[in-house]
Amino acid sequence: MKLSLTAGLLFLATPFAWAQTAPPPDLSDFTKSPTEHIIDQIEDPFRVRTVMGTITTTAGEEGRADVLLEIEGPNDERIVRHTLTDKHGRFKISKLPEGNYRFKATLYGFQSVMGTIIVSKHAPATADIRIEMRPGV
């Protein structure tokens, strides 16, 4: 009796656990690298006045050139803006309205990186974005 009761409770709890799983994010507006198999998610948002910063790799480089940085927003708007990093890994996207943006950094042979950028006039003036990319697998 205990075995069938336990099995029944397990059967009932299993669909509930699946229902609690969040759906994968919609990435259809972003570019996908041909070697993109893993996307690293940065949990904490970047709070900045201007979208600018540096992208490096774990290979020890100070900055990585030609990384595609795309941002979507503000908020629920599906407007995508993009830029490439310069030879020092620096990027800048100017004149953005305040709001929340999703970003994705993509480079052939590396794991993509996603996260959130909050553009606010209340962010520290010296705040910039620093993203590290790992080689793809």
Tell me briefly what this model is.
Helix content is 13%, strand content 35%. It is built from 1 helix and 9 strands.
Any descriptors?
single chain; 137 residues; mainly beta; six-stranded mixed sheet; three-stranded mixed sheet; 1 helix; disordered N terminus
Q: What gyration radius follows from the Cα positions, in whole Å?
A: 20 Å
How many helical elements? 1
Low-confidence stretches: 3-22
Number of separate strands: 9
Mean pLDDT: 83
* Proportion in helices: 10-25%
- Please outline the major beta sheet: 6 strands, mixed
Euclidean distance between termini CA atoms:
49 Å
Shape: globular
Give me the secondary-structure category: mainly beta
- The oligomeric status of these chains comes to single chain
Beta fraction: 35-45%
Q: Write the element-wise H/E pattern from the N-terminal end onward.
A: HEEEEEEEEE
Describe the structure in your own words.
The protein is mainly β and 137 residues long. The chain is built from 1 helix and 9 strands; from the N terminus they run αβββββββββ. The strands form 2 sheets. Strands 1, 2, 4, 5, 7 and 8 form a 6-stranded mixed sheet that branches. The longest helix is centred in the N-terminal third of the chain and has 18 residues. The N terminus is likely disordered.
